[in-house]
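We close this part of the discussion by returning to an individual protein. The encoding preserves chain order, so positions in sequence and tokens coincide. The sequence in question and its structure tokens are set out directly beneath this paragraph:

===
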Amino acid sequence: MGLQVPLRKNLTVIKPYVPGKPIEELERELGIKNATKIASNENPVGPSPKVIETLQKQLSQISRYPDGTAHNLTQALSKHLSINSNQIMLGHGSNELLILLAEMVLNPGDEVLFADKSFVVYPLAAQLFEGKSKVIPLKDSTHDMAAFANAVTHQTKLVFICNPNNPTGTFVPLLAIEAFLKICPPQVLVVLDEAYCEYVDEKTYFGSLKLLRDYPNLVVLRTFSKVYGLAGLRVGYGVGHPDLVSVFQKTRQPFNVNSLALAAAEAALSDNNHLEKVVQLNRQMRHKMTEGLKALGLQPVPSQTNFVYFNVPHAQDLYQQLLRKGVIVRHMGPDAMRVTTGTVEETEKFLKAFAEIYSLAGVKA
């Protein structure tokens, strides 16, 4: 007998998030060893040694519930960011924050603005709460903030801006963000998703937290999954108006961030030397990957992140061929790829493998 329980109709159209292919799965399927995964924008260096040491000490306490107020991490973030502790919200990765913020403001039929192409969770958040996705095309591979401004209507309740953008790696200057906030109605929640902010080199990008003083409808999201190397522990944070944060505390599940994640994130914040090591390696490998792709006649989009995006014909076929060479990347539909910067060895392995299959394919960018 089939399921008789009536489910919400909007759930039937939602496509689950598809993560990058795990190394173990590829090696099992193809019977290969030493595969390389540069598909999910993970940190190839790994977390700080201080994180590993902290986790080892914390393991003996996992029979206890986490601190439900996340006092230590909240205080550490407050000091690190020079903000008040009542402005901070924590989540099981920044993904949870995206979903909960949408739940807080959306009613059926409300409009949600975001770019195409951008992070795949934004339309999912809209669909979950029966909002209407209003997709704004990218301009020169980045957010078109003038088009965003023109798209806002009385039905708009939520705006997602991924900055730098995933998957293109481009950024919106701070002045353009502020110009949009000036014309955006205060009733519209604007979520600035800065998951990759620590990798940015461009000086005109920085300063979003200062905008919170003048725009209480702004929330800035960040994560420990990327530059801090804690993707497996799932901890992200948001900064917003205290009144919004107080409502968020009612919405989130109790103990939504586990004790290991809380302790690891606090330790990660304390190691600036490791952070700089990760950023420097990324800068070098991003340049190496970009130049390697240009040498093949491709035109990768200038990136401010830990990945490089480029258009290429037959991307899905090239992706499959890379898998057979033990290299996992992310194809973005039929004509584009996104590749995470890895270690020196991983980056060189990708460039060598891609050059071989691209040459054999005989395609032109």
Observations:
- The radius of gyration is 21 Å.
- Residues 139 and 283 are 25 Å apart (CA to CA).
- Residues 272-294 form the longest helix (23 residues).
- The chain is about 40% helix and 15% strand.
